[in-house]
Amino acid sequence: MAVPLDPEMFDELCPSDLSPIRFGDKWAGMVVRCLEGGPRRFSELRVPLRGVTAKVLTRSLRRLEADGLVRRSVLAGRVEYALTPLGRSLLGPMEVACAWAREHWEELLDAREGMATAAD
């Protein structure tokens, strides 16, 4: 049995939401991170991804599956999602992008705040 996902795995102000580098839709990178440790059921993914609706998470999983990054399996009536080898190959580039976002976090925040102030 897999170790349960940490409900606090993603900060509310997660750098992945701030980063201008996207892997698929808004939630795709976080889904990939959740599947890094092995297959997960939909309800397990909802724990750290509590900010996403079931409909949007389903759409994100379907897109990842269509792109060949995630495999959906039905085993004994249970649906599980797992990374494919292609999906696993995305983990390295994602880590580089996350490291870049952490390094430039303050600059990204300043730019976003500057845009919000200019819009007022």
TrEMBL record:
Entry superkingdom: Bacteria
Record carries keyword Transcription: yes
Assigned keywords, A-Z: DNA-binding, Transcription, Transcription regulation
Positions of transmembrane segments: none
One of the Pfam families matching this protein, by short name: HxlR
The HTH hxlR-type domain, residue ranges: 14-109
GO molecular function (one): DNA binding
Keyword Transcription regulation: yes
Name of this chain's protein: Transcriptional regulator, HxlR family
The species this protein was found in: Micromonospora chersina
Lineage: Bacteria, Bacillati, Actinomycetota, Actinomycetes, Micromonosporales
